[in-house]
DNA sequence: CGAAAGTTCATGCGTCTGCATCTACTTTAG
DNA sequence: CTAAAGTAGATGCAGACGCATGAACTTTCG
């Protein structure tokens, strides 16, 4: 037995997930990723949006769907290509800030322009301007909600055994 | 220069993408993936929804975000575990149908139940029933639109040279 | 019909990924 | 202050992934 609410949740999530897969698949096929993989672009993009003095690995990791070790090595590769730099964090000798270099920023902009055009072509006239606004609003709220949740939960049983 | 429409597209896509990342991250942390990775579950789930005589690899591949070779090997592993079988396709000796075994179906259901509970817990009260319906509708339409597109496009220039 | 082109899936291979763990610090608490 | 616990990030390693390509068909077209 599944409650109607749980069902609506599962349905909405599946639709969202499948839509994401379809769009990513389409965007991936575009000739925009010769210099940067999507994940690499994601990192540069996130950095380009963040504060001028960069972001810590931990912070980057909340936006990029990659394990901490994988992200660490992805950043290694970007450093090797001169697109980002690792710098020290004031007051915390463990941490690392990741900062865009001029080359990195330029590349992000170059790829970003083409990527945006690609997105525009992919979404086309599927949704009206109002619908796009609604979609943005709903997904933003969904993200904020989930991000505010206490990490992991035991979902084996719906009811706690008292 | 970017048109307002292209901007709305890019914004909506980013929100959708980030929401997906946040939810996947949350769901991945749940103790539901001991027996099956998310991608393996995705394959079993897709099969459980499809026709009784299974799906071809090509068809599976449209739903699962994985390259054809990777999917082929993922299916290898599922076969090795006795969760699916490969069968011949009538009228096409190249093809392979992938069919759920009883064990595979049972496992999908078992994991699926817990996964649905996990989704329910994750989405919580973020959106109202109406909003969930709206989100489902918008993402469904988005997916159908993108799926109907002619594969890859050159997006370097916005205007076709006549 | 028969050759060329296209499709479906599998496989070799180098790279990327995640898990577990380690190091180096920072924070908490006795 | 010091020991224990916690946190940030790096690294060894086995396994998974994608790209390029191969093998076995099927379809198209002269």
From TrEMBL, chains A, B:
Origin superkingdom: Bacteria
Gene3D superfamilies: Winged helix-like DNA-binding domain superfamily/Winged helix DNA-binding domain
Classification via SUPFAM superfamilies: Winged helix' DNA-binding domain
Pfam families for this protein: MarR_2
InterPro entries: HTH_MarR-typ, MarR/SlyA-like, WH-like_DNA-bd_sf, WH_DNA-bd_sf
PROSITE patterns from the UniProt entry: HTH_MARR_2
Domain HTH marR-type: 1-144
Residue ranges that the Swiss-Prot or TrEMBL entry lists as coiled coil: none
Name under which the protein is recorded: MarR family transcriptional regulator
Originating organism: Flavimobilis rhizosphaerae
């Amino acid at each position: 037995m599944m409650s109607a609410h749980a069902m609506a949740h599962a349905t909405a999530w599946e639709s969202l997930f499948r839509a994401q897969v379809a769009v990513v698949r389409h965007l991936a096929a575009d000739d925009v990723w010769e210099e940067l993989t999507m994940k690499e672009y994601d990192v540069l993009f996130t950095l380009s949006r963040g504060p001028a003095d960069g972001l810590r690995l931990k912070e980057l990791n909340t936006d990029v769907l990659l394990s901490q070790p994988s992200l660490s090595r992805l950043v290694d590769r970007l450093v090797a290509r001169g697109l980002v730099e690792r710098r020290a964090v004031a007051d915390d000798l463990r941490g690392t800030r990741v900062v865009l270099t001029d080359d990195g920023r330029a590349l992000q902009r170059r790829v970003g322009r083409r990527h945006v055009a690609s997105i525009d072509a992919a979404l086309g006239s599927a949704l009206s301007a109002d619908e796009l606004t609604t979609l943005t609003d709903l997904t933003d709220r969904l993200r904020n909600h989930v991000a505010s949740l206490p990490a992991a939960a035991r979902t084996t049983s719906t009811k706690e055994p008292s």
